[in-house]
Amino acid sequence: MASFGEAPSGDSGKGAKIFKTKCAQCHVAEKGGGHKQGPNLGGLFGRQSGTMDGFSYSKANKEKAVHWEEATLYDYLLAPKKYIPGTKMVFAGLKKPQDRADLIAYLKEATA
Fold it and tell me: pLDDT per residue over 63-86, tens digit each?
């Protein structure tokens, strides 16, 4: 698995489309939005996994205590259930490095 340091440059416009088709059914990106099946992602970067108020996280997600940044998201988005065994997130992941880079570029803007 290539690291984020070896990832292609992300395109936030393409990432927005990926978010809409793959993530928006379960997540809201903007700060202050409500939770859906998954937690609101506002303020994601720099936050620790399992700590968003008002969302019921799995024990695994809380205990993993991931510090969310580009590198950790890049690895997580490849295969969430392998990265955090026991997570409630049912998403299979994004196998293409470009898709992950694009989504991260979008999330950096949308969740700030």
Answer: 999 999 999 999 999 999 999 999
